[in-house]
């Protein structure tokens, strides 16, 4: 049965460029219906030059909440009134909510990543040796939360060493505690000989893996030899929207766990929903809307 849209229906939305691939509307609308909230969640394609105009319009419209996806997570900050600590630390906003005529920015990506790994995949971030590929906004958005879980070590691999070193310095300044953070070039000759020492490898680049060949260094755009990961390790691809069956099967045969970004989307969305509504997210319903297996 279709839900009724009335003048009282509250608007929530996603802004980004592109948004046509997003599964957030299906997930959030299923949650609203289950919770009995008179609201609708839509995805708006917004180009960079229009971000300020759109946010000002949403402010006037008294929108219930906004999610922000690439490439606008940093760009929106200049149009917000306040930032929560996680957004300040990461310089990245993926969730906006109104409060007392103000628009406040937060970042739930790190929460989503940690919850996905710890609870959906039953892998402990605490004590893990972690390799993250990339040092851009996606990596920055999750690493503060990951490091708060006290992993044994973190290695940042990036094509630009300077950018990775800058991220490392930012992390060390904020954490103010002794933790091993190593920076290495995104070079197969450096990474592949030691790829089996990592418990968790996170792809925080926009390169998606969808075929068994993508697990071999000859065919992987990043040059990673994922089939040399140790048994029981986890490869977490922050991307979603590609057919994952082939690469998942290839890694499973090796005894390596695999997840795309849907698990992270689920938990960051659940956190955003709680911020907007004060309600506990119906995770099982949201999982089903995303086409995920129940845990």
UniProtKB/TrEMBL annotation:
InterPro entries linked to this entry: Aminoacid_DH-like_N_sf (IPR046346), NAD(P)-bd_dom_sf (IPR036291), SDH_C (IPR041121), Shikimate_DH (IPR011342), Shikimate_DH-bd_N (IPR013708), Shikimate_DH_fam (IPR022893), Shikm_DH/Glu-tRNA_Rdtase (IPR006151)
Reactions the enzyme catalyzes: shikimate + NADP(+) = 3-dehydroshikimate + NADPH + H(+)
Enzyme Commission number(s) of this protein: 1.1.1.25
Annotated positions binding shikimate: 22-24, 69, 94, 109, 240, 268
Record has Amino-acid biosynthesis as a keyword: yes
Cellular component GO terms, alphabetical: cytosol
Keywords: Amino-acid biosynthesis, Aromatic amino acid biosynthesis, NADP, Oxidoreductase
One of the protein's GO biological processes: aromatic amino acid family biosynthetic process
Signal peptide: none
Limits of the Shikimate dehydrogenase substrate binding N-terminal domain: 14-96
Domain of life where this protein originates: Bacteria
Binding site for NADP(+): 134-138, 238, 261
Transmembrane segments: none
Pathway given in the UniProt record: Metabolic intermediate biosynthesis; chorismate biosynthesis; chorismate from D-erythrose 4-phosphate and phosphoenolpyruvate: step 4/7
Residue stretches making up the SDH C-terminal domain: 261-290
Family: Belongs to the shikimate dehydrogenase family.
Function, in words: Involved in the biosynthesis of the chorismate, which leads to the biosynthesis of aromatic amino acids. Catalyzes the reversible NADPH linked reduction of 3-dehydroshikimate (DHSA) to yield shikimate (SA).
Protein name listed in UniProt: Shikimate dehydrogenase (NADP(+))
Source organism of the structure: Candidatus Zymogenus saltonus
GN (gene name): aroE
